[in-house]
Structures are given as structure tokens and as C-alpha cells.
Design brief:
The complex is a heterodimer.
Chain A lengths: L1 H21 L3 H21 L3 H26 L3 H10 L6 H19 L14 H8 L4 H30 L2
Chain B lengths: L6 H21 L3 H26 L3 H31 L13
Helix pairs in contact in B: 1-2, 2-3
């Protein structure tokens, strides 16, 4: 019974992810991506990581997917792009990659199932307080490095986007 | 509420999500779909970290997930700028169009 709480969102996540990679319309794929991310957030909550679940909803499903949606809207992808997509995406193209990926899947399943003795999660919540205490003491350097990374990304995104807007204004 | 889940099950789901993302990267040619598949792969890596953290009852897994989150946000910001440039320059979203260094 308890395991159903884990497997239901897991099944939703896998199904919606499969739909993400097979859609032809980018906006539809993004909505399925939101469903996938939300169900992974439910899994985080079930595993006892409420803070990570909240971050998944706020940053992944909230910020990152909205960023994708803005770009899809700016590019103005319409019916022509859906038709072009179906020309690129012939059913036969799935065969080779699917075989390779299933080989990897079989290997991983074999390794994971063959793990010695049963490992079970503790079933206890690890709340935001514990995460914050750990984050700003032993992992302080990692936080600083993440800040550097985000600053570099900010400058890079600004640089790329500014040139896009300037050259667009010219004609 | 948190329940006791065998770590193997979580790892199986994480592996499934990762390989679905990999399949998307291999098959799709539209760069936006490639980026979405990359997001799925990073998310599954985060799921594996959370599972490990939940196994030991330690916050370290969640911290690693937050670092992955920062990485994903940075990657998406830069990559979407590149998408805009590619669509302007080549008038297509096909990654093969941008296969030469001197564009």
C-alpha cells in the first residue's frame, strides 16, 4: 500500500516524460514536462525531502519551464514547425537509439536489482532547517561556486540576448 | 509524510527517466527538444541524489540537488540565448545546421 504512494507518481513521471520526447509541438511538450517535473516533486515529498520538492516546483516547473515558454513564444513556432518536425521525426529513426538505450536500461536494471541486501529509505522527513544548517556550514564553498556559475550564466545570457535584439532592430 | 521505499525502486525510476532523456537527445533534431531532454536527464540525476540522501536520513542529497538545480538554471539561460542566435542566423532550429564552427 505504502509503495503505491511512490509508484503512482513514478508512473506518471515516466509516462509524461515519454510524451515529452515524442511530441511534435514544442508547447505541448513543455506542458508535459511540467507534469513530469511536478510528479518528480511528489516523489521527493514521499521520500522525505519537502524542501527539495518545493524547489522543484518553484525553480524547475516555475522558472525554467517559463523561460522555455518565453523562447518558444519569441520564436513564434506555428503549424509550419510542427510539419517540419514530423518530416524530421520519421518512425524508423526511433529504432536504433531505442535499441541502444534499452541495452543500457537492461544493464542498469541488472546492476540495480543485483545490489546486496535490501536498502530502504529511512522514512523520516529531512526538513529545511537541517538542509540550511548543512548548506551554509560544510558546503559554503559550493554555494559560493554556484553563485559564480550563476553570475557567469547571467553575463553570458545577457551578451547573447543583447546581440540578438540589436541585430533584429537593424532592418 | 514520508514512507519507507526501497532505494532500488527509486534508482530504477531515476534510470528510466535518465534513459528516456538520453533517447530524446539521440532522436530529436530540434534544439529546443534537445534542451528539454537534457533537463529531464539532470532531473533524474537529482532524483538519484535525493534517494541516496533519504537512505541515510542526511541532508546532503538535497544539497546536491540544489547544486544541480543551479547548474540547470545556468545551462538553460545560456542555451536559450544560443537558441535565439541559431534561429536568427540559420532560420531553423535544426542542430545540424550549426555543425560548423565558422558560422
Amino acid at each position: 500500500m505504502d509503495l503505491a504512494l511512490f509508484w503512482i507518481p513514478a508512473a506518471v513521471a515516466l509516462a509524461s516524460t515519454l510524451l515529452v520526447i515524442t511530441r511534435k509541438n514544442a508547447a505541448h511538450a513543455l506542458i508535459y514536462l511540467v507534469v513530469s517535473l511536478l510528479s518528480v516533486a511528489v516523489i521527493f515529498f514521499v521520500l522525505g525531502a519537502p524542501f527539495a520538492a518545493a524547489l522543484e516546483v518553484v525553480i524547475y516547473a516555475g522558472a525554467i519551464v517559463v523561460l522555455f515558454l518565453f523562447v518558444v513564444m519569441m520564436l513564434n513556432l506555428g503549424n509550419t514547425s510542427v510539419m517540419r518536425e514530423s518530416r524530421w521525426l520519421r518512425p524508423g529513426m526511433w529504432v536504433g537509439p531505442a535499441i541502444l538505450v534499452s541495452i543500457l536500461l537492461i544493464t542498469m536494471v541488472y546492476v540495480i536489482v543485483g545490489l546486496p541486501n535490501a536498502n530502504v529509505t529511512t522514512g523520516e522527513m529531512v526538513g529545511p532547517k537541517a538542509v540550511g544548517n548543512e548548506l551554509f556550514r560544510p558546503y559554503l564553498l559550493a554555494v559560493e561556486l554556484a553563485g559564480f556559475l550563476l553570475l557567469a550564466a547571467l553575463i553570458g545570457a545577457y551578451h547573447l540576448g543583447r546581440r540578438y535584439l540589436e541585430q533584429r532592430r537593424e532592418p | 509524510m514520508a514512507i519507507e521505499v526501497p532505494v532500488e525502486h527509486v534508482l530504477l525510476v531515476a534510470a528510466g527517466l535518465f534513459l528516456l532523456g538520453l533517447l530524446g537527445v539521440l532522436v530529436r533534431r530540434n534544439i529546443i527538444f534537445l534542451l528539454m531532454s537534457l533537463e529531464v536527464m539532470m532531473n533524474s540525476a537529482g532524483l538519484a541524489f535525493i534517494a541516496a540522501g533519504a537512505k541515510w536520513g542526511a541532508p546532503d542529497g538535497q544539497i546536491m540537488f540544489m547544486l544541480i538545480l543551479a547548474l540547470a538554471a545556468a545551462e538553460v539561460a545560456v542555451a536559450l540565448g544560443l537558441v535565439l542566435q541559431i534561429s536568427r542566423r540559420f532560420d531553423t532550429l535544426d542542430v545540424d545546421a550549426a555543425s560548423e564552427l565558422n558560422g
